Amino acid sequence: MARSVLVTGGNRGIGLAIARELAVAGDAVAVTYRSGEPPEGLFGVRCDVTSMADVEAAFDKAEAEHGPVEVVVANAGITKDTLLPMMKEETFTDVIDANLTGAYRVAKRAVRGMLRMRRGRIILISSTTATRGLAGQTNYAASKAGMIGFARSAARELGSRGITVNVVAPGFVQTDMTADLDESYQEQIKAAIPLGRYATTADIARVVKFIASDDAAYITGAVIPVDGGLGMGH
Fold first, then answer.
1. Against a cut of 0.90, is the pTM above it?
2. Does Disulfide bond appear among the keywords (predicted)?
């Protein structure tokens, strides 16, 4: 039976790959997007995760279309990279609001139906930057590290109701954003990755599919790096 799935930020990049992977596996997938058009073949709902009203409306529309959400992937996020001495307070708080507080809003709304069903999967997309750090990303790293504490606390709260909460932490992923990086910098990054390449969005999506599956029913509170070995020891 198809499960109702919601992927935030599911109109491009990692989010779109996750949405398509779960749809191919037989789930009924809805995606949120902030601008542009929804991806072809998927049910799209416009949503800004910095607004609780938007998140509520997105879930209402997804559930009207596919039934109570059983799997939620909190993927929507932003970067505003700046070195700390030059970082304005709103540059810090905007990233926290979108990435970390956004994940809280999405998980809080998802849990409502999951508690009634006594089952569910909450998957937060973090980053290896959460544990390794990266210059210019104090805001981003703080938001992604916060997801780990949030997920592990939620896992303890919700486990008795059959709800798992896990974190997937990608490293550098081949996207439009990384393609625009200076070529010499790209080579430096790849040299630091034991597998010697960026992840593909499919690499991330397949791990999320596993965590969302019945095969992962006994995994909760985990942080799963998908980074080619970049974050080993962190």
1. yes
2. no
